[in-house]
TrEMBL record:
<protein>
    <submittedName>
        <fullName>DUF2812 domain-containing protein</fullName>
    </submittedName>
</protein>
<keyword id="KW-1133">Transmembrane helix</keyword>
<keyword id="KW-0472">Membrane</keyword>
<keyword id="KW-0812">Transmembrane</keyword>
<dbReference type="InterPro" id="IPR021359">
    <property type="entry name" value="DUF2812"/>
</dbReference>
<dbReference type="Pfam" id="PF11193">
    <property type="entry name" value="DUF2812"/>
</dbReference>
<feature type="transmembrane region" description="Helical">
    <location>
        <begin position="146"/>
        <end position="168"/>
    </location>
</feature>
<feature type="transmembrane region" description="Helical">
    <location>
        <begin position="116"/>
        <end position="134"/>
    </location>
</feature>
Length: 173
């Protein structure tokens, strides 16, 4: 058996809690999270441990990183991996959750929604722009517009779904 394994993410905006439970089950099997990789997770083989995982969304300036990670370390959480504004931490079972009240959980979702909203607005705007160009032009400009319209639409649908998931979670909290 290899020393590296991969698992797809269910989409953190949709199944964050389920993903964190899957990471825990993998740790119990001796597979430990190493890093994010292509919309999923990369694991490496090790000893079985009963760990819990949590994720935080925060875009950090270079001078904020040490203080940010120290705050979690003091609370018993160890940084595992980071990608852009997503940071996954692990801790021993029974450690106080990172988000133990409704206000902090709402704040986390609001931070997640900001880049998702920006990307969604951009990609939906491009989809509309290319749709208009496609409708009101002809020849090679229309063909190019059609190609980019389809590309933008392929990105727009999951983007809108992801943004709607963040809206749902904000209303739910």
């Amino acid at each position: 058996m290899g020393k590296t394994k991969y698992m797809m993410s269910g989409g953190l905006a949709f199944t964050e809690a389920a993903d964190m439970k899957k990471l825990r089950r993998k740790s119990l099997e001796g597979w430990h999270l190493k890093r994010f990789r292509c919309a999923g997770y990369e694991f490496e083989k090790g000893e079985s441990e009963d760990l819990i995982y949590s994720i935080d969304y925060r875009l950090l300036e270079p001078d904020e990183k040490d203080e940010y990670f120290e705050m979690f370390t003091v609370g018993g959480w160890t940084p595992v991996c980071s990608e852009y504004n997503m940071h996954i931490f692990k801790a021993d079972k029974g450690t106080v959750p990172i988000y133990s009240d409704a206000e902090s959980a709402r704040d986390k979702i609001n931070r997640l929604a900001i880049p998702v909203k920006k990307f969604t607005v951009l990609i939906v705007g491009l989809t509309i722009l290319f749709g208009i160009l496609m409708k009101f032009t002809s020849g090679s400009i229309q063909n190019v517009s059609l190609f980019f319209f389809n590309c933008a639409l392929i990105l727009a649908v999951p983007s809108v779904m992801t943004y709607l998931a963040t809206v749902y979670h904000r209303l739910k909290k």
